[in-house]
Every structure is written in C-alpha cells, then in structure tokens.
Amino acid sequence: MNFNENALAVDEKVNVEMSRLRNDSILDLCYIPLYDVDSTQFKIVLNNVRSLHKHISDIKHDQNLLCADIIGLAETRLCENDEDRLYEIAGYDIVRNDQDRTASLTRPHHGLIMYVRTDSEIHKIHRYSSSNFEFIFASVSPVGKGHCQVLSIQITQVFDV
C-alpha cells in the first residue's frame, strides 16, 4: 500500500545489462519447438499433466502443444463425473480413458486422454484400464499425412519379470 516507485534507485549498470539482455542476447534452445517444425510433418506430443482439471488452462494456451496433430496426456485424474466440455480444446476431438473412482471421493491417480485434430479421421480406438496398466490405442489418418497408429501407455505398477 502507498508504494512509492520514486523511492527506488537503479544502478546504471543494471540498466545497461538489462538492455543488453533484451536486445543483444540470443537464447538458443536445445530442441526445435513444434511451432517451428514444418506443418507437413506429423507431430505427436505426450505429456504427464498430473491433474488435468488443474492444468487445462495451461494446455489450452500452450502454443507448442497446440501445433501437434495428436496430444496425449497422462495422469489426467479425470473421472466419469468430469464433463468433456470442460476439457475441450478447439480443433481437437477428445478420446478419454478415465480410471474408475475408488471407494473414496478422491480423484483416481491415473487416467489418459488423447486429443486428435478434428480434420483427422479416426478409424479405430481401443481403451484399457486397470489399477496397474492403462492404454489408448488409436488408428488415425491426419489429413495429408498418411496413416498412423498411436499407442499411449501408462504403467502404474512395476511388474516382476
């Protein structure tokens, strides 16, 4: 309250360095962002969202993710009571694989969702979910990019071999 910006003093060296960083420094990424990849290339993203209901706004505004033809998200923690309309992303169809809610009222710990561009043709979808393992399999033909089969898997328990 009653903050007085005129009471602050900034050393000129700070102003010079800030100017250099803004104008002369270039940050080279160690990867090529999807928005810089040729749009004729088929792009798939898989992310662990650790509660989609908490991060859907971030997903809807992430320009790197939204350049993908298919977005797979793990650990969505969605349940049958969560309406699709709350998780829609413009330009994508939703394929959900929610885990059954346990006896408690808490959200399940896992769950998968796959977003497929609406201009793609989905030929087959298979879903499976158990307390140890879950997957979504989709056979998809993105417009002008051929045909592909995508499998999003989440293993929730280590098995002895």
Summarize the structure in words:
The protein has 161 residues and is of the alpha+beta class. The protein has a domain at 10-118. It is 14% helix and 30% strand. It contains two helices and seven strands. It has helices spanning 12-23, 52-61, and strands at 44-48, 70-74, 92-97, 112-117, 121-129, 133-141, 148-155. It has a four-stranded mixed β-sheet with strand order 1-2-4-3, with no helix packed on it. It is extended, with a radius of gyration of 22 Å.
Main beta sheet: strand number and arrangement? 4 strands, mixed
Uncertain segments are none
Distance between the termini: 63 Å
Shape category: extended
The pLDDT mean sits at: 90
Cα gyration radius (Å): 22 Å
Structural class by secondary-structure content? alpha+beta
Count of individual beta strands: 7
Number of helical stretches of at least 4 residues? 2
- The percent range for helix content is 10-25%
The largest beta-sheet arranges its strands as 1-2-4-3
Order of helices and strands: HEHEEEEEE
Beta-strand content bin: 25-35%
